[in-house]
TIGR00725 family protein (Candidatus Entotheonella gemina), 620 residues
Amino acid sequence: MGMARRIVGVIGAGECDETVSVMAEEVGRRLAEHHYVVLTGGRTGVMEAASRGAKQAGGLTVGILPGNDPQDANPHVDIPIATGLQDARNAIVARASEILIAIAGEYGTLSEIALALKMGRRVIGLGTWHIAKAVQVVETPQQAVADVIRYFETH
Amino acid sequence: MGMARRIVGVIGAGECDETVSVMAEEVGRRLAEHHYVVLTGGRTGVMEAASRGAKQAGGLTVGILPGNDPQDANPHVDIPIATGLQDARNAIVARASEILIAIAGEYGTLSEIALALKMGRRVIGLGTWHIAKAVQVVETPQQAVADVIRYFETH
Amino acid sequence: MGMARRIVGVIGAGECDETVSVMAEEVGRRLAEHHYVVLTGGRTGVMEAASRGAKQAGGLTVGILPGNDPQDANPHVDIPIATGLQDARNAIVARASEILIAIAGEYGTLSEIALALKMGRRVIGLGTWHIAKAVQVVETPQQAVADVIRYFETH
Amino acid sequence: MGMARRIVGVIGAGECDETVSVMAEEVGRRLAEHHYVVLTGGRTGVMEAASRGAKQAGGLTVGILPGNDPQDANPHVDIPIATGLQDARNAIVARASEILIAIAGEYGTLSEIALALKMGRRVIGLGTWHIAKAVQVVETPQQAVADVIRYFETH
């Protein structure tokens, strides 16, 4: 019966091309329009684009940082959580998200997808690793966020 | 040049008496009035009282939970960060806070104070462990929050 | 100039069929014959089989456990490291191994492969996830261990 | 009914004077003579002295390192466990030890004592923080190790 906000993780690489960046930004914006908190790894690339999009829509953004310094967060993170755990922070990104949208991504993203699936979290994939039937593949940011909305209607 | 909100940790035991609870609530309320994000371990006792106080003043609250389930947070936590790290989450509480107010507390709180001091974080103590000169002892919630304000004016 | 023993991680699922178990046991045995420490997640399935094989050859075994209790380790683990980190312990398995052999496996194993690659660790795959060219695919335990030996000759 | 070795944590600061170093070395030596595995944080000071003592008696030493590189271990660590967790590794040191001997120490040691007590681990103190009745104070390395032996006779 708490008032906790619903948290959606957006995961992807720290470097990405313009197409991926535009997708991540739209995902962030649409999530914020539906009042979800956008949680990322707090750094550059997909993480920054999703956070920027969320802020454009007046949303709230959390960054789970690998390092020690909250100032390592990109400028669109409202709540920088410096963990100091380095790569082990990927497990926190997966755990703290009720559902995740994976956009493109490298090994770090793959580890987050795998950890999230291990934890029983739902993962929606947008141009990302095709590793398992358990990742729900979509084609557009709009579809990804529609799936998130549908998920929360029943959970 | 980010827009990140300033985060103040409030640490203390999961069980506390009425006097301590009232102090923690006032600390939370005063921090929120000054627009600081109130970060706690997300559970009961001091953590819940500080979060409740912050929400009374319209503030924003984060809970760094030891377990796997965001629903373990007390009802006054806006952003529940389920870490699954159990006691190792105490290091995240210390690291993610720019400055901490310790109120009473048991061994868990002591570990957070010690970790915070190790990390070079400032710790303000209100009726808590007297372990080191490095903990800045105050007598009232008002003094504790005044010290926080002073800290951020110069950091 | 330390005397530290070389550590090889053997990763794979907590449940596995007989064929996989036999392979994991042979990997463990061969690693121990070459005096490598065999590090696993300390539990059942591939982890137990690899540890059992290593002990048959008089080797030394380490288990990085997700839970709180050293007694959760399988009976072939000499050094049970209870972490209490749950799934985040996968990052420790990857980090603490200088090189890893992945045998079959589910999502947990996939997360360890991905984390290891992210950390720049070499991963040798035996009937496991085909996720990237970076995983060096082999067909037999003998080949896997030969690759490990070759790796340490040059690192 | 496993064959797991009994693990004793020895904790203390990364810098220490000669008197403390001699004590730590004797603690390590006596523990190894009784076939306990000596687990430390793997670095310098008390950690190194205890490991050196253990190796003089032919013992086995484990180092739970804060950083990414097993080569950061002192030269008397047999099994370097690189965690990459930085200060959060202190929780692993506490958790992985069945019982701990604290020798002198700074804030990091204090955090390990507090975490160990929180986890219900027994802590024996040798010239360390006097924080609680729960720490069993002894005067000599001989007494510390005698207490460890007594503990394992009943646990």
Observations:
- Chain A touches chain C through 23 residues (CB under 8 Å).
